[in-house]
Design a protein that fits this description.
Length: about 350
């Protein structure tokens, strides 16, 4: 099983926050090779393997940022509202996909007033999402309806997938489909081992819109839980590196402190010891944003975010380093087998 093939498969499966049906089915298809996955009332997915007194869990969120149709103009243009941390600047001039209630994908574009007819001050300001329009080539509201498009249909970017220098993967949605792929590959590895611990894999919903799936997981008898997610790498030009001091290629990141609080000190020390013992490079930081680890910590479960560094977070060109991914999978395997 190749990481790049699994992550590409997950990336191209629809599943913006709150609309995870398709990506959930895709993940379940992978998990069925190793056991009988369960789905709770909210839509989180669980699979447990092994047995033993100690219960270790790993968690990744299956949703991604996107938008939703909020209004259909009489002219046939569509208004949208963002789902999650969407930067308006990455919407300009983009080709988008709408998932209709009948499962059909309809493409549209978010245009921008051309420079030929724009005033100078218009060229230098960011247009808020509320002032943008999605153009599906319709002439009227009735025309839009005939295409199967309705208010509250979810929207995402048409994706590309590139590998640079046979090492760096670039796409929209690596946060956190790469985390989901890491867990699937880890599960594949552990399924071939004699486990002395009980290990649960959890795939959560709606992380991007408030950590809502993590805050409602049904598995509560967990001794240690690791949220596998991304963290912004600030190793790019004209960025204050101190804001998120992580770099591609320097190993997985223990995201110990973020905007939602502090993770488990004991798990951080354990992960550090295991990484050092096995000569696995790692990074540590305090940064903004948050992960599902904050949600499960509030449930009383010792939690730590172990993240892969990602450049250009929440853009259409998120970038990760395969070296970091391989080291993260190795570290997680050692955490279970230690």
């Amino acid at each position: 099983m190749e990481f790049k093939e699994v992550v590409k498969d997950l990336l191209f499966t629809f599943g913006v926050s709150g609309y995870e049906e398709s990506i959930r089915k895709k993940i379940i298809d992978y998990l069925k090779n190793y056991g009988e996955p369960e789905v709770d009332k909210l839509g989180n997915v669980y699979l447990t393997i092994g047995s033993g007194e100690r219960h270790i869990a790993f968690m990744a969120h299956m949703d991604e940022i996107g938008a939703v149709i909020s209004y259909i103009e009489d002219s046939g243009f569509l208004k949208i509202k963002k789902l999650g941390g969407v930067d308006a600047r990455i919407l300009y001039g983009q080709v988008m996909e709408i998932l209709t209630q009948h499962g059909k994908i309809v493409n549209g574009v978010i245009g921008l007033k051309p420079p030929h007819i724009s005033k100078e001050d218009e060229m230098n300001k960011v247009i808020p999402v509320e002032d943008l329009y999605l153009d599906v080539g319709a002439k009227s509201k009735e025309d839009v309806k005939s295409m199967g498009i309705n208010v509250l249909d979810p929207v995402r970017w048409v994706k590309q997938f590139h590998i640079l220098r046979e090492r760096y993967i670039v796409s929209r949605g690596l946060d956190d489909r790469a985390g989901c792929a890491i867990l699937i590959l880890l599960l594949d590895k552990l399924s071939k081992e004699h486990l002395k611990n009980k290990v649960t894999f959890i795939f959560t919903i709606q992380e991007e819109t408030g950590l809502r799936g993590a805050k409602a997981i049904v598995e509560k008898d967990i001794d240690e839980l690791y949220a596998i997610d991304s963290v912004t790498a600030a190793d790019q030009p004209k960025v204050d590196y101190s804001l998120s001091p992580a770099s591609l290629g320097n190993g997985p990141v223990f995201r110990f402190i973020d905007a939602r609080g502090i993770n488990s000190f004991e798990l951080r020390m354990r992960a550090r010891d295991i990484a050092n013992k096995n000569k696995i490079p790692f990074q540590e930081l305090a940064t903004g944003g948050s992960t599902d680890a904050a949600g499960t910590f509030e449930l009383g479960i010792p939690s730590l975010a172990i993240c892969f560094p990602i450049r250009y977070t929440h853009t259409t060109v998120e970038m990760i380093d395969m070296e970091d991914i391989n080291n993260e999978i190795k570290l997680l395997e050692k955490i279970v087998m230690d």
